[in-house]
Design goal:
Elements lengths: L6 H19 L4 H8 L3 H13 L3 E6 L9 E5 L5 E7 L3 E8 L4 E8 L5 H17 L8 E8 L2 E2 L5 E4 L4 E4 L1 H9 L3 E5 H13 L11 E6 L3 E7 L2 E3 L30 H4 L16 H9 L3 H25 L3 E5 L6 H15 L2 H4 L3 E4 L6 H15 L7
Parallel strand pairs: 3-6, 6-10, 11-14, 14-15
Antiparallel strand pairs: 1-2, 3-4, 4-5, 7-8, 8-9, 11-12, 12-13
Helix pairs in contact: 1-2, 1-3, 2-3, 6-12, 8-9, 9-10
Length: 390
């Protein structure tokens, strides 16, 4: 099958490649951009001139000469616009305002008293407006909003099924875009978290360059973002990663999804309600304080959750054989008590060849992974990542 494009499409693709190259590898000269992209020098010069006019690229001082005149180096101007990344859960709405580099400019958190769709719409719009008001003046303003939600989302931004919120077939993306009059991109919160860790969390760290990873978001539920060969894997219809509803007990507790024994009933905040005697609180930040002050009941609870996490991670490792597992979300803050039992279970139960090169890490971005990944999605959409597939 032949794929053809007119000159405008070819130019758009080339411009996206040039901008993306400068974003990743700056500072670069025009010649270096040409060498990295394979585009001829005249094409690169013309596209760079447009990007400078649009304030997305800036020239800085001269670089090293290879024999002639010193070349001017190019930088991506991350302050030419801003994006908003949101994370929605059953108990809170959190948001960040970032520049186009992903640097956090402002952050907000709001406990949710109601999770019905109309109420959440109002909460989101209010937070977007508040964060927008905190953005410094820039050429491109707020370029878009990204939202991570705990459920299955289609390509149009419709939340197909979010059992913990009680939502089904909710047109969140389309409705918010119309209300806010700006681009809105909605994805599963674990997919957004995987993007956050991949692009912002691991840069310069030992995981940089990883091509196959699974990001596991653990909070009020569990979801997984899967990166295969450096690209998000979402399955045939976009619904991959609902590992929280992987059954680990065939006749276990009844889940809100309709099944039994789902992993998230044992390895997420939903396990708190099973503690005997009842816990002093059911909120993770307060439980972390109790654990750090020596409360043995809370420490034991986290130990049990860690063991259950290890069971589910074992299934993921044996199924996908990833290089890296990253654990994020609210419960990742309990690493001090989760990690040892989790690692023990994985070491005991995974197949030896699967764990030979495996690394299990807790999220570098902590509880910000999803918000920053959602912001990254909005930024990338605005900056025009154009790809052609045969």
């Amino acid at each position: 099958m032949k794929v053809t494009g007119d000159q405008a499409l070819v130019k758009k693709i080339n411009k996206s490649i040039v901008l993306d190259t400068i974003r990743q590898y700056a500072p670069l000269s025009r010649v270096q951009v040409s060498q990295r992209t394979g585009l001829n020098k005249a094409t690169v010069s013309n596209l760079v001139a447009e990007l400078i006019t649009e304030d997305l690229i800036q020239e800085m001082g001269p670089g090293e000469s290879s024999g002639g005149r010193k070349p001017l180096l190019l930088l991506f101007n991350g302050r030419s616009g801003f994006a908003i990344g949101l994370e929605l859960s059953v108990s809170y709405l959190k948001g960040v305002l970032t520049d186009l580099h992903g640097h956090v400019e402002a952050e907000q958190s709001l406990p949710l008293e109601r999770t019905d769709y109309p109420s959440v719409l109002e909460y989101i719009q209010a937070m977007v407006r508040q964060l927008s008001a905190l953005a410094p003046s820039s050429r491109h303003g707020i370029v878009g909003v990204g939202i991570g939600v705990p459920g299955m989302v289609d390509a149009d931004g419709t939340v197909l099924f979010a059992p913990n919120l009680g939502w089904e077939e909710v047109p969140l993306g389309q409705q918010l875009a119309a209300e806010l009059q700006m681009p809105v991109l909605v994805d599963n919160e674990a997919n957004a978290g995987a993007q956050g860790e991949l692009h912002y969390g691991m840069a310069g760290e030992e995981g940089y360059g990883t091509r196959n990873l699974v990001y596991i978001s653990v909070g009020s539920g569990i979801g997984s973002g899967i990166i295969m060969d450096g690209k998000p894997y979402k399955g045939s219809w976009g619904y991959a990663g609902e590992t929280g509803h992987m059954s680990i007990d065939w006749d276990g507790l009844r889940c809100s999804c309709g099944s039994r024994g789902c992993w998230e009933l044992y390895a997420s905040e939903r396990y708190y309600t099973r503690s005997e005697p009842p816990l002093p609180t059911l909120h993770t930040p307060e439980l972390l304080q109790h654990a750090s002050h020596g409360n043995t009941q809370v420490q034991q609870l986290f130990h049990e959750i860690g063991a259950y996490m290890g069971i589910g991670i074992t299934n993921i490792v044996n199924s996908f054989n990833p290089e890296l597992i990253i654990i994020g979300g609210n419960l990742s803050e309990a690493r001090a008590w989760l990690e040892a039992p989790l690692q023990d279970i994985v070491a005991e139960r995974t197949l030896p060849y699967h764990r030979r090169e495996l690394n299990i890490r807790f999220a570098q971005l902590g509880s910000r992974s999803t918000m920053l990944g959602a912001a990254y999605t909005a930024i990338s959409a605005y900056l025009g990542h154009v790809r052609v597939s045969l």
